[in-house]
Amino acid sequence: MNKFIASTFSELLSLLHVVVIGGLVFALIAYHQNKQSLVSFLGPEALEPVYVYIVALVVFVVYVLIVGALSTLVSMNEYLKDISEKIDRLDVNA
User: Fold this and answer.
1) What's the total number of domains in the chain?
2) Residue 89 structural domain
3) pLDDT tens-place string over residues 39-49
């Protein structure tokens, strides 16, 4: 069951990568096509391209940190399972 959860979580993380990167690309394209809608959301600073790119970069960095932490948890789970199996084998052999 634990392996199923870890593999499912891994697949969901892969899907999340595609969705977030696609969303950022879509948002930047939408920004260049219709700046006024973003001005109503972010304020008058949205007319500055640097501001929009900084917001996109911050969103991407936060995403990388969160997904990195979640990926680390999945990896730790897999290593702990391997360690547990090795300990069980040592107990049986002793």
Assistant:
1) 1
2) 2-93
3) 777 778 777 77
